[in-house]
Hints:
Oligomer: single chain
Largest sheet: none
Order of helices and strands: HHHHHHHHHHHHHHH
Amino acid sequence: MSQSENPQNQQIRNDASASNPTGQSQETAVQERSAKIAVTVFPLLVIAGAAVAVINPEPFRGWAPQVTLLLQIIMFGMGLTLTLGDFSYVFKRPLPILIGVVAQFVIMPLLGLGIAVALQLPPELAAGVILVGCAPGGTSSNVVTYLAKGDTALSVTMTSISTLFAPIMTPLLTLWLAGSYMPVDAGSMAWSIVQIVLIPVVGGLVIRLLLPKLVEAILPILPWVSVLAITAVVIAVIPGSHNALMTAGGLVFVAVILHNLAGYGLGYAAGRLTRRSDKQSRTVAIEVGMQNSGLAAGLAAQYFSPEAALPAAIFSTWHNISGALFAAVSRRFPPKDRVVEPAPESVVS
């Protein structure tokens, strides 16, 4: 959940194949309640944690060195929720995956730069906004997609693929777009992303393959571990960016909200312009608009400055609030296309 930064893949996977025409099964109803609770509680916890850190930052100044470990825990949890079947989508329906991932790494980085220029943000905040745009998709998008009646299997696969591409795409895009604002050590950043993202995700996937019963037993608690971890990340970066929050917080909020909402709109447009279904276009919109802002916060604090982590910290809260609202509105307008599409092998009917 960045997102929470960890997807509830196992809990929401059933929705990806087909709904029960006679009504929700008890299992599906339980899954939906769990997803709704997670998508509601997560931003409330982050808001509460951030508020405490803003009011009294001193006790949390020593938390910053733990951000990398917290992010690794989040990404390891993501790996535990994945199966090889999630990646079969790439071979079964590569076009929507390609469209979504390209949109992810084109729309949000350029939006970040455009907003930084338009609002004339200070260099550190501009670099932070751009870095958020260059991050991979946030895994809380999987829950939001499920609630918005999008294509959940597509969401899980898009998040996974963009995450795996992050060690290459995020440093290169950041160097290209943010290099004029602050020095960017793309090589070191790439290695950090490998350590923070790639190794934990692959490790979690391997553990899932080797110990499936054990992992399935702990799956229900993984989203909540991620919720607590990303809340701790936000709390950890607030003290270092406290002065920036007090002086330019309003401007950063405007930048974050514009970035997120424009991502939703342009992501949906990208889906429709490439003739994707309404269901798939909703999914692309959510995947593009919701970023792994926890990762961006950690990288900004490590490679730029604590102030540069402020946009990511605010994004972590806002995109989950807007995602919940997006899902609530979307549920009032069922997808116009009713075609039931094939699901990955790991999806159970």
